[in-house]
Design goal:
alpha+beta, eight-stranded mixed beta sheet, four-stranded antiparallel beta sheet
């Protein structure tokens, strides 16, 4: 164990593997199906052969649980505006050179200081305590901690919670079969329709991902299967053109159907691909219009603000169904139907709508305030408390004037997103002894590990990159 980080020293029995001669094992979780010798790890570096048995190194090892909203996961047609508990782990089945969560997705960079330790009971009890109804398996990618996902998702279902799976979906057929037993929502990121893109930039292959999406879609037949949405990350200079975006919508029309929501997602430069700009929003708008002209019914923009292309509209009469400002959603549906023409909406509303109570929050006089101003295109942040207690927040203008009502949150870590163009910052009120840290969120699926006090020195488009010297 010498030379290993703390998180690497303990393993948990893995699923989906078989023994091979000479004390080797074959992992069957992802399409690589690594054959692993004793004492060695697979390509993901998270699954290790210990004495002829496969163990996973990240069971219950996670970045901090974070309360967000369901729109952060490119899910627009299931419980708009619903609060979720986002759970990211360490490691990944892919090695994207543009990864926005590389500090936790690439095992070699994971620091012990980034790792939290949870049990399935910890996660479920936390969600129940904070009245969060959806567990979201997300960030770097949930495939690589399959065992913890399965155990926790099963327990969550026993307590009436829903499970959301946000993934690039580099997973084998057997793994998907298991997920279909416990997942209610799939949000799958299809990065490109070019196999060469996957091989060159992600160290993966395209076909297994397409096969996996079709496997989830097939489970929907009969009306009892999981909810499904697909997103396409449009990476600057690689697949951000109308020819490539059309390949995605054409594939969905030919293999899924026109009703499955499609999200064209804006990219921000990161990891080893920082010499370009963010994806052009006008291009994303063109891609959306093209897909809809070709027959797709519901097409959205992701990581784009100040556009109506994040709203949901009736495809028949164009009435507004759901309005989204930043990551805040407001539904105008009436009993699940269009308020204008009465068309039944495909947007699922698993819980009865209830008008939020208007609360006049009184901030205790003993509380101190912490202020953070947003920079340029950065529209959201994570707030992390030193200890779990209720704090208050209010958005402010550039001059420090209040914008909107005072809100409150008691989670250890939670996300705040601008929903008003006047908002230029956030003011937090908390006990002086409860220290806070603010993390700037570059895009909706970005999990920051570097505090705002450091990233404010970086570009507004490219986070600070603490990469080691090549070769070391």
């Amino acid at each position: 164990m010498a030379g290993l980080k703390e998180w690497q020293k303990s393993g948990h029995p893995a699923r989906l593997w078989r023994p091979l001669p000479e004390n080797r094992v074959q992992c069957e979780l992802c399409p690589r199906e690594c054959k692993i010798s004793g004492g060695r790890s697979g390509t993901c570096r998270m699954r290790r052969n210990e004495n002829g048995s496969l163990v996973t190194l990240n069971y219950g090892k996670s970045v901090p649980m974070t309360q967000e909203c369901i729109e952060t996961e490119a899910v627009y047609h299931y419980a708009p505006g619903e609060q979720i508990l986002s759970l990211g782990n360490i490691g990944c089945m892919l090695r994207c050179d543009f990864c926005q969560n590389w500090t936790t997705s690439q095992a070699r960079y994971v620091q012990d200081s980034h790792v939290m330790y949870y049990s399935p009971e910890d996660v479920v009890n936390y969600a129940l305590k904070h009245n969060i109804k959806v567990l979201s398996w997300t960030y770097n990618d949930p495939i690589v901690w399959h065992e913890f996902v399965m155990d926790t998702a099963r327990l969550a279902r026993q307590h009436g919670l829903k499970n959301l799976y946000k993934s690039a979906f580099y997973i084998g057929e057997k793994g998907i079969d298991e997920l279909l037993e416990v997942m209610d929502i799939f949000s799958i990121s299809l990065k490109s329709m070019q196999d060469s893109f996957y091989r060159k930039h992600t160290a993966g292959r395209l076909q297994p991902i397409l096969d996996g999406i079709k496997q989830v879609y097939a489970a929907r037949q009969g009306g009892n299967g999981p909810h499904l949405e697909v997103s396409n990350l449009c990476v600057t200079g690689r697949n951000d053109n109308l020819t490539e975006s059309r390949k995605v919508s054409d594939w969905m029309l030919n293999n899924l159907d026109a009703e499955i929501p499609l999200h064209y997602v804006r990219f921000h430069p990161d990891f080893r691909y920082t010499q370009v700009e963010r994806t052009s929003v006008p291009f994303l708008e063109q891609a959306r219009l093209q897909a809809m002209a070709d027959g797709m019914r519901y097409v959205y923009l992701g990581n784009a603000y100040n556009t109506t292309s994040t709203n949901s509209y009736c495809p028949d009469c164009q009435a507004l169904w759901v309005q989204r400002n930043g990551l805040i959603a407001r539904s105008f549906l009436q009993n699940g139907c269009c308020p204008q023409c009465g068309k039944a909406s495909p947007i699922q509303l698993p819980w009865k709508d209830s008008a939020p109570e208007s609360v006049n929050h009184q901030i205790p006089a003993s509380f101190v305030s912490t202020t953070h101003m947003f920079r340029g295109p950065i529209q959201a942040c994570h707030v992390e408390q030193q200890q779990e207690s209720a704090l208050f927040y209010q958005f402010i203008s550039a001059s420090g004037q209040p914008v909107g009502e005072i809100g409150t949150n008691g989670c250890i870590r939670f996300m705040l997103s601008k929903s008003d163009d006047r908002a230029e910052g956030i003011r937090l009120y908390h006990p002086a002894e409860n220290k806070l840290q603010v993390f700037e969120v570059y895009d909706r699926a970005h999990f920051p590990v570097t505090g705002a006090e450091q990233t404010h020195l970086a570009s507004e488009d490219v986070p600070l990159n603490f990469l080691p010297i090549p070769g070391r």
